[in-house]
């Protein structure tokens, strides 16, 4: 019985660590998505500016 209780405690610890890791990965993913969207906006603005400059020539 003692071994089973220890195993259950260890499993609960592992589950808690997995939940924390999942939350951290979600936050990192959201930050990466925000950065990608910002970069995409800059890229599109730069391309639009380049096309305008080429059209003026």
Describe what you observe in this structure.
It is a single chain. The protein is mainly alpha-helical. It has a domain of 33 residues. The N and C termini lie far apart (83 Å). The mean pLDDT is 93.
Q: Let me know the largest β-sheet.
A: none
How many β strands by DSSP?
A: 0
Mean pLDDT: 93
Alpha-beta classification? mainly alpha
Q: So how many helices?
A: 1
Shape: rod-shaped
Instruction: Give me the Rg, rounded.
Output: 25 Å
Relative helix content: over 70%
Topology as a string of helices (H) and strands (E): H
- Strand residues, percent: under 5%
Termini Cα gap: 83 Å
Which spans have pLDDT < 50 for at least 5 consecutive residues?
A: none
Quick tags:
single chain; 57 residues; mainly alpha; 1 helix; 0% strand; rod-shaped
List the helices and strands and how they pair.
Layout: H1 2-56
Brief overview:
The chain has 57 residues and is mostly helical. The chain has one helix and no strands.
């Amino acid at each position: 019985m003692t071994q089973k209780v220890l195993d259950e405690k260890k499993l609960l610890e592992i589950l808690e660590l997995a939940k924390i890791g999942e939350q951290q990965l979600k936050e990192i993913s959201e930050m990466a998505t925000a950065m990608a969207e910002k970069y995409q906006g800059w890229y599109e603005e730069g391309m639009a500016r380049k096309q305008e400059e080429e059209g003026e020539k």
